[in-house]
Amino acid sequence: MNVENLVRKNILNLKPYTSARESHLDGILLDANENSIGSVVAHDWLELNRYPDPNQRALRKAVSDLISVPQENLFFGVGSDEIIELFVKIFCNPREDEVIICEPTYGMYKVCCDTNDVAAKNVPLDSNFDIDLDAVKNAVTEKTKLIFLCSPNNPSANMLSKEKIFELAKSKEVMIVVDEAYIDFAKHSGLAKEAVQTPNFAVIRTFSKAWGMAAVRCGYSVASEFVTKLLFKVKAPYNINKLTSDIILRAISNKEKYLKLVDEILNERNRIAAALEEIKRVKKVLPSDANFISFAVDKPQTVFSYLESKGIIIRDRSNQFNFNGYLRVSVGTIEENNKFIEELKNILL
Ligand SMILES: Cc1ncc(COP(=O)(O)O)c(C=O)c1O
Question: Which of 72, 147, 183, 328 could share a disulfide with 190, CB 3.0–4.6 Å?
């Protein structure tokens, strides 16, 4: 497997911009046209006048310790959404190459393909919302450079089969990216270790869900050193700002709180699932390895609008390909979940 063959030639040959802070973060810094005197917003605990570290060293060290993968295999983006986009940019020539996505799934894979003028080929998930291995294998052509998979999958909430993912990575010369945004809520620990060792396989994760840091916009990838270097090559010079870096480091230093939040969400998820199962006109409740539950009803739009009129906003996913009739609800606080269940009963019982 030679991943280099999959990369766009212009990206392989790219001489990246070298930013001033790449070589020096300390000293008498007169190299980056910063404001050395200070900044308009000044606190002694917050230095804002210097560009941040383009090599993301502090974050790479902290997450390396957190998930036990080498720093060289980690890259941080402005949310995992930025990393999804960078993968398309690195591997796909516009109007030439193709990406495979398996719907129903997270909408940004297709949007990133569309904005880059790259064809997104949909190979639907099977009736259990798992990878249709033969169909995906058959869909791969010499134009296919990338396959996006989401595990646990948004919106069906299930993990994809690990065996199928690795069978694909083994049998096809394609870069496979598994989005593990919801892995913290799953029974299994994910595939980060495998991403370090498998040249055509990468994992994306985020601080937006279990860590409760969605406003900050920070996600990361675990990939081979080769692919990680490509991500650094194509990113904006200072994509991760200092405020983001500092506050994510603070989050990581409070792992107990993270574990507590996950625990609370799992308890509530189980409680909502049990309540939904008791409502006869809820036709199906999908088992969840995520922080949301998808459930099918007869008239999803009516149910959605009723809840909306009560100030409860869930996601109507019933028009999504291969997901007819389904609504998706995120796990909220105990009070929010009680209100949701109460109003759902009002309209469905
Ligand atoms: C599967 C999946 N991946 C990525 C994201 C975006 O994550 P981030 O906030 O890190 O950009 C989401 C957001 O809902 C998601 O559902």
Answer: 183
Q: Which domains does the chain have, with CATH numbers?
A: 3-19+54-253 (3.40.640.10), 256-348 (3.90.1150.10)
* Binding site membership of 153 for ligand 1 (Cβ less than 6 Å): no
Q: What pLDDT score does 149 carry?
A: 98
Ligand 1: centre distance to CA 2 (Å): 29
Q: Is 156 buried (19+), middle (13-18) or exposed (0-12) by CB count in 10 A? A: buried
Angle between helices 334-348 and 255-277 (to 10 degrees): 10
57 residue type, one letter: R
Determine the residue of 208, 220, 248 to mutate for testing ligand 1's pocket, defined as the one with the most ligand atoms within 8 A of the Cβ atom. Answer: 208
Query: CB under 8 Å, gap of 24 or more: what pairs does 105-110 form?
Result: 105/148, 105/149, 105/150, 105/153, 105/154, 105/155, 106/150, 106/153, 106/154, 106/179, 106/181, 108/81, 108/84, 109/84, 109/148, 109/150
3-class SS at 147? strand
> Predicted confidence band at 319 (pLDDT cuts at 50, 70, 90)?
very high
Assign 45 a pLDDT band (cuts: 50, 70, 90): confident
Other Cβ atoms closer than 10 A to 34: 15
For the segment 117-141, the average pLDDT, to the nearest whole number, is: 98
Q: What pLDDT score does 314 carry?
A: 98
CA dist., res. 200 & res. 223, Å (int): 8
